[in-house]
Amino acid sequence: MLIFLLYETSEEELLRLIGNLSESEAINENDIPTKIIKLAKFVLVPILTRIFNKCIKEVFILIV
């Protein structure tokens, strides 16, 4: 049994992670290009932070 504990994230952490995304990796037709994510990060990050943290609060232990 494998247990993962998830902790809330911050806007700063998501900004750092988005900043580290590679723009050179190939994408398929259903993916959002990394360049678009990076350009929209200041709009996306507050929304994604709230979504991620709400999910983590509601399901805080995943058992695989």
Structural class: mainly alpha
Instruction: Report the total helices.
Output: 3
Mind summarizing the main beta sheet? 2 strands, antiparallel
Overall pLDDT level = 85
Strand percentage: 5-15%
Oligomer: single chain
Anisotropy-based shape: globular
Number of strands: 2
Question: Which spans of ≥5 residues are poorly predicted at pLDDT below 50?
Answer: none
Give a written overview of the molecule.
This protein has 64 residues and is mainly alpha-helical. It has one domain. Helices cover 52% and strands 9% of the residues. Helix 1 packs across helix 3. It is globular, with a radius of gyration of 14 Å. The model has no long low-confidence stretch (mean pLDDT 85).
In short:
The protein has 64 residues and is mostly helical. It has 3 helices and 2 strands; from the N terminus they run E-H-H-H-E.
